[in-house]
Amino acid sequence: MVVRKRKKHSRFRGNRHYHGSHKNWKGGGNRGGRGQAGMHKHKWTFTVKYDPDHYGKHGFTRHAQVKEIKAINLKDLDRIIDRLVAQKLAGEENGKVKINLPKIGYDKLLGSGNVTRPLIVEAKQFSKNAVAKLEKAGGKSVKL
Fold first, then answer.
1. pLDDT digit string (tens) for 63-116?
2. What is the architecture of the domain spanning 71-143?
3. Could you tell me how far CA 69 lies from the centroid of its own chain?
4. How are beta strands 90-93 and 96-100 bridged, if at all?
5. Which of 50, 86, 102, 121 has its CA 20 to 30 A from that of 69?
6. Are 134 and 113 within 8 A, CB to CB?
7. 90, 97 contact by CB (below 8 A)
8. For the chain, percent of residues with pLDDT exceeding 90
9. Is the dihedral angle over the CA atoms 127, 131, 137, 140 positive or is it negative?
């Protein structure tokens, strides 16, 4: 059988005992307002001690995240070709050096500088200047 406990509201109705003055028990005024009322006024010490994160912004979710594009210039690529071939990150094909940029950690090829030998470059993006300089040197750009 379920034991039901009488609530204080029914037991102490009409009773002035247990709560000091008869004004001290009923209503939100005894609590200094209901709920979060007064958190920035008369309950400020409570806020500082027990709820310091009550005010302010707390995090934000960016839904449209911008991916940073990692790019390399032609002059830098031309400078590291020998090292890439030695490490087998680039290969030779018909007398031209073939490089896969995403394999070495780059997304885009930019056109600053010059190329000293014909290259076949595979990448996700190319600048117009880079494509023109590659073709002028006898190489080509392959978009992935």
1. 888 889 999 999 999 999 999 999 999 999 888 999 999 999 999 999 999 999
2. Ribosomal Protein L15; Chain: K; domain 2 (3.100)
3. 15
4. antiparallel
5. 86
6. no
7. yes
8. 66
9. positive
Contact indicator for 113, 136 with CB cutoff of 8 Å = no
SS3 for 44-112, per residue? HHHHHHHCCCCCCCCCCCCCCCCCCCCEEEHHHHHHHHHHHHHCCCEEEECCEEEEEHHHHCCCEEECC
Per the listing, tokens 């010059």 go with: 114
pLDDT surpasses 70 at 41: yes
Look-up of token digits 């600048």:
127
Per the listing, tokens 């449209």 go with: 64
Rounded to whole angstroms, how far apart are CA atoms 125 and 143? 7
The amino acid occupying position 132 is A
Whether residue 124 contacts residue 141, with contact meaning beta carbons closer than 8 Å, is answered with: no
Task: Give the type of residue at 50.
Answer: Y
The domain ranges of the chain are 23-57, 71-143
Residue 80 tokens read as 């590291």
Question: pTM for this structure?
Answer: 0.56
Q: Which residues pair with 125 in a beta bridge?
A: 108
